[in-house]
User: Fold these one by one.
Assistant:
Number 1:
Amino acid sequence: MSLVSITEAARLTGKSRRTIQRYVATGKLSMSQSDATGKSIDTSELIRVFGNSLKTDIDDDTPSNVTMSRSVTTKNDAPDIEKELLKQELALLKERLKDKDAHIDSLQKAMLLIELKLPKDTEPASEPQPETTTPAITETVTPVVVKKSWQFWRK
């Protein structure tokens, strides 16, 4: 097979020159070196590493801008897709709202059942009030000021 330079190998494989150089450096791709041609790569090596999908020279009579067919959404399709997604989200939220309402209804029914089982005449228990007694004051008590260790300025 023929020998090509790194630049030509990059053009044939569709990779960058740096990628070809990296493959040579790591040993994935072998390079031959001669005095007449310098560093070159055999095309059979390119086929071994990158497969049979090497690019060949393009004839001059073919158009220079070739379009590839792929699934592209046009600007007109974007609102339709967005509308469909919003409809799905709305349906999901309505379903969640129905579930929430059903849960609230079941909790209300449970509360009614609990209230029906309580005796009718029970009122909330009042807290016992302490008896109010007035202490007999016989002598005057002066409060004792307790000084903490960090309150060194107090007298």
Number 2:
Amino acid sequence: MDNQLPGMTTTPQKRRSGCLPGCLIGVLVLILAGVGVGWWFLGKPVMAFTKAIRDITRIEELDTRVSNRASYDPPASGELTEQQVASYLNVLKGIRSDMENRLETLAEKYEELGGEQPQLLDIPRFAEAYADVIGLLGEARESQVNALNAQQLSLGEYRWIRGQVLAASGLTGEAADFAGILGSLGGSSSAAGTPAATPNDANRELLTQYGEDLKEYGALTMLGF
């Protein structure tokens, strides 16, 4: 039975077709895009930066893997032996052999950073280079520890040999100390030059036959190795 009143007609109601679902999808897409851009330009660099900071501690702990833990008492004369110079060069050779062409990348990126930890506002721009430098320094340090063990050198003796070689070569003020480099990159100190040793005429004479070798490993010397 039709309950429609006389004289009245029914008009089919139009279905609401507002843009609400489409608008919500559009807004969601914009939000997700914004999150993605934010992650790429800020979140990702910050994650790389914080991981690199943690890696510095790991690198510092690599010293405990050096087998020869004996203390070293240098000779009163301050004179190097041929064996010591050969061992020193073999350590540098081992690092370079392991790192191959990545040493150039390490030197370039370290120079790009200026040898220091990026400031807060610089993190998005330098985080990748910073993380690369820390990672490559870690690899080089591992290679150095392995080479020290192969040469049966303690850290104390190696540092003394290095100091005498640099002093006799006139490079003391230019070559950084590895611990100082890590400290600077970690934000706790500035990279300092290697403590000056007293130049020794006998060492200068001894090193004349190793001039080409020392020049070949110059990049490693500048990076504290």
Number 3:
Amino acid sequence: MTDFRTTDLPLAAFLLTQRMQFCGVQRKDLRSFWFTFTPSNKCEKLANDFFSGKGSVTPRDYSDALRRARDLIFEAGRQPARDI
């Protein structure tokens, strides 16, 4: 099974609220970061739900997850960029 990766911060926060297994965040380049989750097939379905407006989450949970995702970016920003 492959991992699901995204550079979309709002989607990453949504996946965190859905209790997807978070594998890590890595710097993609100077302005972008990869968020990695598993299992890929479930994450893809949730991503489709998110972008089609079918995903559901409480505002408080989403706000907390967005804050967590930003904190993860801040921590990853301290590491050098990697070629992926």
